[in-house]
Amino acid sequence: xxxxxxxxxxxxxxxxxxxxxxxxxxxxxxxxxxxxxxxxxxxxxxxxxxxxxxxxxxxxxxxxxxxxxxxxxxxxxxxxxxxxxxxxxxxxxxxxxxxxxxxxxxxxxxxxxxxxxxxxxxxxxxxxxxxxxxxxxxxxxxxxxxxxxxxxxxx
Length: 155
Known about the structure:
There is one protein chain. This protein is an alpha+beta fold. It has helices at residues 2-6, 13-62, 67-72, 133-154; strands at residues 74-77, 83-92, 98-107, 117-126. Strands 1-2-3-4 form a 4-stranded antiparallel beta sheet. Strand 1 (74-77) and strand 2 (83-92) form a beta hairpin.
């Protein structure tokens, strides 16, 4: 009975150390989760900015009526003052006034630190101003020949 009297209502040293270990482990897990959440948020914000940059570059391409100037590309000032360099590789798609476009852009990150981000976007555009009369005539002639061959094959 003397042992029960010595024990008071407090915790033993082992119990306190176990509780501290559990609390420390929970703090580390929560801290790591918080850091991951912040990093993911920054990555999503950078991706959204990158997508917005490509929208501006695509708009600059679509606003260019001259095919040679569109292929040369240019220097575009983005809304936040950064500069994006872009150029396009334009190839006829085999249909009159239809073109396959590989749009390449390079822009610095929004934070201003780090290397520029390069992006490529592939588009198929209907652009009559980029066609020449000779290209249209050639495509029309090929289409007529193909139709004539198909008609003859059906007979």
